[in-house]
Amino acid sequence: MVARSVLITGSNRGLGLEMVRQLVLAPRTGNPKLVEAPRTGNSKPEVIIATCRSPHQAQKLCEVADNNKNVHVVQLDVTDESSYGSFVSRVGELVGPQGLNLLVNNAGVAPKSTRINMVRWQQVTDTLTVNTVAPIMLTKALLPHLKTAANQVEGDSLAVKRAAVINISSVLGSIARNEQGGLYPYRASKAALNAITKSMSVDLRGNNILVASLHPGWVQTDMGGKNADLTPTDSISQILSLLHQMTDHHHGQFYQYDGEQGRWRIEGVYTMFTEVTFGTEQNTKAGIWSRSKLRESDKVEIKEH
Length: 305
Ligand SMILES: NC(=O)c1ccc[n+]([C@@H]2O[C@H](COP(=O)([O-])OP(=O)(O)OC[C@H]3O[C@@H](n4cnc5c(N)ncnc54)[C@H](OP(=O)(O)O)[C@@H]3O)[C@@H](O)[C@H]2O)c1
Hints:
InterPro entries: Fungal_SecMetab_SDRs, NAD(P)-bd_dom_sf, SDR_fam
Bound molecules: NADP nicotinamide-adenine-dinucleotide phosphate
Low-confidence stretches: 28-41, 260-305
Helix content: 25-40%
Protein name: C-factor
GO molecular function, one term: carbonyl reductase (NADPH) activity
Pfam family, one: adh_short
Largest sheet: 7 strands, parallel
Mean pLDDT: 84
Number of domains: 1
CATH topology: Rossmann fold
Shape: globular
Keywords: NADP, Oxidoreductase
CATH architecture: 3-Layer(aba) Sandwich
Order of helices and strands: EHHEHEHEHEHEHEEE
Radius of gyration: 18 Å
CATH superfamily: NAD(P)-binding Rossmann-like Domain
């Protein structure tokens, strides 16, 4: 299994929901890519804490929980710091004395404003609050449970199965690869998230907690839009394979969903993506994406919203 206990923020739709769906798949009955993955196996986590802002409106997630006793839907608006105390207590009850193995900071927003003349103050601060501030503060709040999990294992090796924080970032956070400009709130929020990943990796190494940023690819979700390259199934199946394989080598680094192929191992935030050939980043009304190979026919005008 990827880990005994997993907590995913923003799991009522998009990539978070897909991660919950794939985590509850029985071994060898799911996506072939998952079955190929890890020697460590794909047995289900014992505890999956699927958080969302409005559980009563999260029908798809609640259906998964109804059919899988290991899935616990817990209300969390990641920006509501006043709720963290009771939330952390609830997580403690669910994971028990073995602690929390894996925190996936997945919840995110991507406002459509693109160019300097369109950007608004509130939009920037709201985006930073969800995509950047919340992952720091939530990780801080959940540290006692992560440390408890890390302490269940002898030695100082790192693995997601032991204890890990995975920050879902984006290639749009790349400074080196920003050739299109615009997207101030989103780009800044993900660049900062990558810097945070690096700091966390330094701070938490002594606690034997693995920390990494992951770019899920351009994915067909509400955020990615329907023209995206990957289905959520493809993206998440490869992310889960990668999580199984993560070790000390991955600590403090940024990987693309298919990082097991080794094409996205980058050193540090300012040199991110300079070792790879990456195409173009654009945005449409449908959403924001990045592509490894942008075909001429795919090019669209960047529009203000
Ligand atoms: N899709 C892509 O192509 C792509 C590419 C690169 C990176 N990413 C990153 O991948 C992650 C997931 O994106 P996605 O494509 O799945 O997006 P999505 O379909 O728009 O889903 C976003 C999720 O975040 C949740 N969320 C937003 N604000 C929240 C808050 N304050 N508290 C708790 N949950 C909140 C949403 O909940 P509500 O339903 O309550 O709004 C929803 O569950 C994001 O961090 C995104 O930046 C996506």
